[in-house]
Amino acid sequence: MATSAFLDGGKLGPRDPTSSLWDMIHTCTSKYPDRPALLSPTQPANLYKRLTEYRGPERKHAESFIYRFLKRAADPWYHFSSYALSWVVPPPPGKTGYLVWSFEELQRASVRLGRYLRDCGIKTGSTVVSLLPVSAEWALVMSTCALNGYVIATLDHRLLDAENLDMLQESIDELCPSLFVVATAREAMSVAMLKSRQVASGICLAQLPPTHPAGWVSIHDIAESEPPGGAVAPLATYDAERTAMIVYTSGSSDKPKGCAIQSSLLAQSLSVISGVPLLPCTGTVISGSAAQSRCPFLLLGIWASGNSAAVNAATPNGETLLMSMVATRPVSISLLVGQLGSIYSSPKLTKDATRSIRIVILIGSTITKASIKRAGEVFPNATIQTGFGMTEAANITTWESKIPKTETFPTWNGIAASGMIAPGAKLKVVDGNGAICCRNEIGQLHLGGSSIVSGYLGGARANLFYKEDCHVWYICGDSALVDDDGYIYVVGRSNSIFERDGRVVIPASVENLLEMQFTKSIVAVTDITLSSGKRGLFAVFQGTIPWSYDKINEFVSREIGRSHRIDGVANLAELGFNSWPTSIAGKIGYSALKTAAENLLYARLACSVTSDSVASMP
Length: 618
What we know:
The protein is of the alpha/beta class and 618 residues long. 30% of the residues lie in helices and 22% in strands. It folds into 3 domains: 25-52 and 63-237, Rossmann fold (3-Layer(aba) Sandwich); 270-494, Rossmann fold; 501-611, 2-Layer Sandwich (GMP Synthetase, Chain A, domain 3). A 7-stranded mixed β-sheet has the order 3-2-12-11-13-14-15, sandwiched between helices. Strands 8-7-6-4-5-9-10 form a 7-stranded mixed β-sheet, sandwiched between helices. Strands 1, 20, 21, 22, 23 and 24 form a 6-stranded antiparallel β-sheet that branches. A hairpin with a 2-residue loop joins β17 (411-412) and β18 (415-416). The chain is globular and about 75 Å long. 46% of the residues are buried. This is Fatty-acid-CoA ligase. It comes from Beauveria brongniartii RCEF 3172. Residues 101-457 form the AMP-dependent synthetase/ligase domain.
């Protein structure tokens, strides 16, 4: 039995080294052009019809009996598997009143938009900055950039808020883009006022006023134009070293940092999803931040498999996610733990709303046993799978064998396993002296292998990357352990874990205990610094606190130990929040909760001291 917390996933399987990103995401367009590629339940069916419509000679006998027979005979496995799967998953929606683009329509729109941009002088290799939320337009920009060989840089649209414009200016200075894509005319004006080292054009989704900035155009005007015809062919051939995408980190530890994703790394990430068979239903629903790696990787990967993605273009919350599931009936969904909580607490949650889901992938660093249990309740027909990865290091874990049921899911002190080491990945858990830990020992997580970025843009935080045995290693901010069976448990952010009374204190273990006890409550437990300067724990409930502070503290101390005692309890409203604060990535903002909890405790202490002083006065 292995005793070292060093894991090597071995080599990756073979893949086609010559396919461009465009070829990968349109792999089935020529064979099955009418297969749905994109569904957007909150956007109108005729959106940008002039971009997607067919303008060639009239097609004859496209749907004749002989044509359909020959098509089935050419690829019998596809039709057999679709028929078999149709007995397992609910059928896709029939006629819809919302936007549905086939792969051929997506290709047409990408080609027409791509030709327009080339005519404007935007060359292959140029950087395109997208400040769009998840939407059909965001997906179209991703496809067009793949066609023209542009570097797509996805930035969070909240950077357009007045208080964040300085941060947006820093990103522009770093990226030096040739094109911006924004949603509103106000956003176009804000971007146009920023400084850029080169003349940049811009596309706005909304109609622009007559006094709009020079170089800017509405996508509606592009749709109404008549680009010249021509063959569909990607301008950029495959180059493993070429930067295909720039994604920024969530900024959970400090400000977001840019990661340049090379074509080879992106192809490797897409290969994880592209092996999914052709499904007779919607492949997945995408909701969250378009600026983070999860959403664009999921979109491109599901297209590479020949399946469709439903985009939740509305404000991402429990209600809109459930609405998207009802409208499009997807077979799978990838969720952050916070998104799961919003679905669980939504009044619109019903068994019918989630009945089509067969696979749920839970991500978000630390995942508790309570989250696995809750996911099983929300999605009773689904297999619950966990995963671990980040912008700097994708595809770290996998489940090679049959995924355990929710009742028997491997856990450690309330923390659910994130799987085993994935092919092509390396991992080691390191102690404070830099030595590799033994199995079942907590240490800092170092990630290596073929899926690690070489560093941050501009050389930021270069100390987090190092080379060893010809591989790049990344020191991430999480602590973890590896058990005897090789399961990986991410126990929390390293700076949130501390020692008290001779024991290691893990906030997530207390969080799990409280959610397992109070099954209807959404709870977050954060570390805090007490007025004495010592470390402690604070529990935050979404709504009503079911027990008194003393009773909760007694329960936690009895179940886990006095070292994990709670030093304060409050609900979101008491901390000044209407909903859970989130990071750019959409994860629960524990740093914001920590600051608010410390301020509340200090205020309570000051009030108590004042009351005691008044009471002691003669």
